[in-house]
Amino acid sequence: MEERRMVRISKYLARHLRHDPQRIGLTLDPAGWVEVETLLRAAREHGFTITPDELREVVAVNDKRRYAIEDGRIRASQGHTIPVDLGLPVVEPPEVLYHGTVGRFLVAIRKEGLRPMNRQHVHLSPDRETAVRVGSRRGAPVVLVVAAGVMHADGHPFRRSANGVWLADHVPPGYLRLPS
Question: Which keywords label this protein (predicted)?
Fold first, then answer.
């Protein structure tokens, strides 16, 4: 499949599995799952036909592994702006995690820490390179270092999504190392 088509399908899935399922008549279960056939039918009925092979390829090839298919169902791995319970257990994080952002947000981050904004969780990266890519989506990236081990020891829960993204409810400013 050509890259443009793959990106278009991935963005379509993100919109309807993470943010606005009702727009095409989907109802996700409490864990964010929907039957693959239901998704394909709804997309087709709303003028965006996706073949089963295209869907499987987008899920398999997506470099961020944003989606999961199990038992004939599909869901987004994280990033929801609608309430879902991904059923992810609390796990001990590595000592350090990273967050990619841009400079214009640093004043608020210094004051409030990292907040989920319109998502359910703050997304943290396991390595600096991933955080750079994330931050680059909005401009010149700034990488923040999160003292995840200390934060966890202080009682803040961490979860890890199926694609390796670390999730936290909030990262208070005291756990962040910010650029000067």
Answer: NAD, Transferase
